[in-house]
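Predict the structure of Class F sortase.
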Amino acid sequence: MSTRYAKAWLAVLSLAAVSLASGCGADPSSAVGASTVASSPAAAPLQTPAGAPADGTSAHVLARSTPVRLEIPAIGVDTPVMRLGLDSDGTVQVPPIEANAPAGWYQGSPTPGQLGPSVILAHVTVGQFGNGVFLHLARLRSGDRVTVRLQDGASAAFTVYKVQTVRKAEFPTSEVYGNVDRPELRLITCGGPRDSSGHGYLDNVLVFASLDPGQ
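Done. Here is the predicted structure for Class F sortase.
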């Protein structure tokens, strides 16, 4: 990660509240999980992600280029990718609640293939419009492939090595957003039971993937 982007990443993680999931219901505000960040993982030394393949550091780091498309054959995902920034309250934006809402790349994170964790969010459901792009994200398993098409014409191919469902109140901030020693991808959506409002979800589904060696 370049010094410029590392500083930007540090600033984001130092916000009092950082949104850590995509909104998944008719009312996005009811489905966004937030966590208080006491200190920034980006300030720590580069870490090898728990469970990541040993050869991940041999992957060639790609040039910074905005992701434009996401393909996950195992769960039938082939979607455009939009850019997401921060809302006025310091939480990460989510894709719109509308029919055919795309996935969204958080532009404060590295682009896919750069050193560090690139973060892509999408809905599991989109209110009255039905199923979201990441409806079946929890079905992914270790070894499944994820391809991100980039604006410069390159592709970043990742292999999933971990899938987990966590309570939003226990979101593993450091594990998802922390500084790592290889190009990584994080896919995030909502999951688990509905909350008391009936619009949001109590859990998050997290997918961890590492850039394939030889990229």
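Confidence is low (pLDDT under 50) at residues 1-43.
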